[in-house]
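We modelled the chain as a single entity of 95 amino acids. Its sequence is:
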Amino acid sequence: MERGWVYILTNRPNGIPCVGVTSDLARRVWEHREGLADGFTKRYGLKRLVYAEPHSTITGAIQREKNIKHWSRSWKVQLVLAENPEWNDLYDHLM
């Protein structure tokens, strides 16, 4: 079974939250930071990893991502604040 991650990127503290899912968190966030991932994150400069949630399977991570994407912005902000109240960029801790 492949492990999965649900993550949230933003452009600044209390900024635009973007939820994603991946099996390789470090690689995926690097792609966002380097502008290799076209779309919403590139258009709005979302490069700060502020939340990462591990899952034992990729299917579990995908289901969790789908659920969080339907949440209101305030619920997503509360999720980040519970784990990362300073909105620190967690990318450096992945390496």
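As a brief sanity check on the tokenised model: The mean pLDDT is 95. The two ends are 23 Å apart (CA to CA).
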